[in-house]
Amino acid sequence: MPAAALAAAQALLGFSLEARWLRFARAHLRPIFPCLPQRPGYNKRLRAALPLVKKAVRMLATDTDFWFDDHWVVDSTPVPCGMSRPTVKRSELVGWAGYGYCASHSRFFWRLRLFLVCTPTGMPITWALANPKIDEREVLAAMLDREPSLTAERPGLLLIADKGFASKEFETDLAFQGIELLRPSCKREKRRTGESLLKSVRQLIDSVNDTLKGQLDLERHGGRTFEGVAVRVAQRILAMATAIWHNHKTAAPVLRSLTAFDH
């Protein structure tokens, strides 16, 4: 899968611009990638490689012990797609992306939201991109319905989430699937079992998002079309899965460390 490998290498080595990445690859990686396309050809192949990139993420995940973990973490994070009003009007993402407020940045973005379900180590299980105005519970329910075998193979699965997923109806639906939801208690609600563990889990979620945004430049994806954004987000998820898989196989002390790849 040369297209997937080339995409993962670009993200791992920190090249958000494809032109710079191809110049670097021609100068230093010819023995590994002898048939490098020109920039238009690479862009076309990258967009067409989305199913392959998704398959590569799943292959890496299933080749580790983390795949059998019965504790999952779910969270969503904004993926900016434009800032100015003229950009929004001209964008091909109209109808998919939308305006939403990001509390961590204290401002509005025209964006998508990345929903990521992963193990406590950060190994991706499944993910989706959605309009920020769609209810988080609705998106997660659709993700689980799309692949029912994921939960059916894990009886007693514990799903750890934040307050955005709070809903008695939603929790009842999860219980029918054999999933227990662990989240912070809301006001006027009794303290929930296991809530004391959520502070460390929150730090874990933030660190996974920091890996995607801070080290893999998720917010600088450069996608301008539906396929372009989707594959560039998948590219970053593949890079993170590759690092975790490699560090697991080599018994590295920090599983999500990118030190072995960023130079």
Blueprint (SSEs and pairs):
Blueprint lengths: L1 H11 L5 H11 L10 H10 L1 H13 L8 E12 L2 H6 L7 E5 L4 E12 L5 E7 L5 H11 L1 H5 L4 E4 L7 H9 L2 E4 L15 H18 L10 H24 L14
Parallel strand pairs: 1-5, 5-6
Antiparallel strand pairs: 1-3, 2-3, 3-4
Helix pairs in contact: 1-10, 3-10, 4-10
How would you sum up this structure, described in words?
- The protein is α/β, with parallel strands linked by helices and 263 residues long.
- The chain has one domain (2-249).
- Helices cover 45% and strands 17% of the residues.
- It contains 10 helices and 6 strands; from the N terminus they run H-H-H-H-E-H-E-E-E-H-H-E-H-E-H-H.
- It has helices spanning 2-12, 18-28, 39-48, 50-62, 85-90, 136-146, 148-152, 168-176, 198-215, 226-249; strands spanning 71-82, 98-102, 107-118, 124-130, 157-160, 179-182.
- Strands 1, 2, 3, 4, 5 and 6 form a 6-stranded mixed sheet that branches.
- Strand 2 and strand 3 form a beta hairpin.
- Helix 4 packs parallel to helix 10 (226-249).
- The longest helix has 24 residues, at 226-249.
- The protein is globular.
- 32% of the residues are buried.
- The model has no long low-confidence stretch (mean pLDDT 86).
